[in-house]
Design a protein that fits this description.
The chain contains 16 helices and eight strands. It is an alpha/beta fold.
């Protein structure tokens, strides 16, 4: 039996289209964002709504390939395709698009996106442990604040920024609490339900309401667990999915694992557990922009070099979630994650002695049955 409250999450994306429309009619501004490196606290402090625009569906890719090369990451093509065809209402409602120079494909895509909407691109330093990188990123946050203030005709106060920091902390806290339910063995919620929940709640125009919804779901799952509810059993292979971000529409690997008898109990990626690790000390009285610069520069994405933080987080998650095997997902043409898979393999296979597989694929279902065979064989190793 699935928790009944999951149904309310499935409705969020469609329900909030009307909410966004009404907010726009009241003059509320919307900022579209594509990456976990975007400091959404600045958007919230401006009284605006931050909304994720990262493309996770195959449908708009054909339209994107009229302008973009075919041998490009499907995430980039999907994101651009939604914008070019005006088929994403959240992009349509966005007054400003905020991007970052995370990878070559994205930063060049933003140039084309700028022909459709106002786009501001932040210069993300990619050697995070240097003092010069922190200074550059702090400067970029100052620059972004000015752009938001000018674009939205507001002034961001320190008080508003600290309140936004608190609000974002609350979102990360409750998201982590939800994901941590699967530290339990047997697990308490399926990987597909976790993915749907965390993906859908990102479209909630009222972020405080999203926190309340997740808290209610957590309480319901815990209540069900007290009555004996579980997903799978002690023998169900517990899989950690790492690598590129996934969402509804690009959930192929998660669904295949669970169709084949495994369970994705944790996801170490920017759409899963990774960003929940970076909450701000609200008692820190330093410059809030410097605090945020330190927070976001600490995110261990594969675009960073070196990137030991990802390996440290992976090792800790494998222990905390009692993982039996690791799947490293790479979207085709995502070079940073593809190369970094070597280090992940070394950690998982050689140091921890666990089964490991890397899967490189795209958003289509053309290879679904081939992947099913590979995943079935992988689960048989456990």
């Amino acid at each position: 039996m699935r928790p009944a409250l999951l149904e309310s999450f499935q409705e969020i994306r469609d329900k909030n289209m009307l909410t966004f429309k009404e907010a726009k009619e009241r003059g509320v501004k919307v900022a579209g964002i594509y990456c976990g490196y975007c400091p959404r606290e600045l958007v919230l402090a401006a009284g605006a709504i931050p909304v994720g625009l990262c493309g996770t569906r195959e449908e708009p890719i054909a339209a994107a390939e009229k302008d973009l090369p075919r041998n490009l990451c499907p995430l980039i093509k999907s994101s651009y395709g939604f914008a070019a065809t005006d088929t994403c209402p959240y992009f349509h409602f966005s007054d400003l698009i905020i991007g970052e120079t995370t990878c070559d494909g994205k930063k060049k895509m933003f140039e084309l996106l700028g022909k459709i909407k106002p786009v501001h691109v932040m210069n993300l330093p990619q050697i995070p442990d240097r003092e010069s990188s922190l200074k550059l990123w702090h400067d970029e946050l100052q620059r972004l604040q000015k752009v938001i203030e000018e674009s939205f005709a507001v002034e961001i106060s320190e008080e508003a920024l600290r309140e936004a920091i608190h609000q974002t902390n609350e979102e990360l806290r409750v998201r982590k609490e939800l994901l941590d339910l699967n530290r339990n063995k047997p697990a308490l919620i399926s990987g597909m339900d976790l993915l749907m929940t965390t993906f859908q709640v990102g479209f909630n125009a009222d972020h405080k309401e999203g926190v309340v919804m997740m808290e209610r779901l957590i309480a319901q799952v815990k209540e069900m667990a007290a009555q004996g509810h579980q997903v799978g059993d002690e023998k169900t292979p517990r899989i950690l999915l790492t690598g590129t971000p996934v969402g509804m529409g690009s959930e192929k690997i998660v669904s295949l694992v669970e169709e084949c008898g495994g369970l994705v109990v944790a996801m170490q990626n920017c759409s899963g557990y990774t960003c929940t690790q970076f909450m701000v000390d609200e008692n820190d009285q330093r410059d809030p922009l410097m605090i945020l610069a330190e927070k976001y520069l600490s995110i261990p994405c594969s675009v960073m070099t070196p990137n030991p933080g990802r390996l440290a987080l992976l090792e800790q998650m494998i222990k905390d979630f009692q993982i039996d095997g690791v799947i490293d997902l790479t979207w085709q043409a995502c070079h940073t994650f593809n190369v970094e898979s070597f280090n992940v393999s070394e950690l998982v296979k050689n140091k921890l002695g666990l089964p490991f597989i890397q899967i490189e694929t795209d958003y289509s279902n053309s290879d679904r049955e081939t992947l099913r065979v590979r995943i079935e064989a992988f689960l048989e190793m456990i």
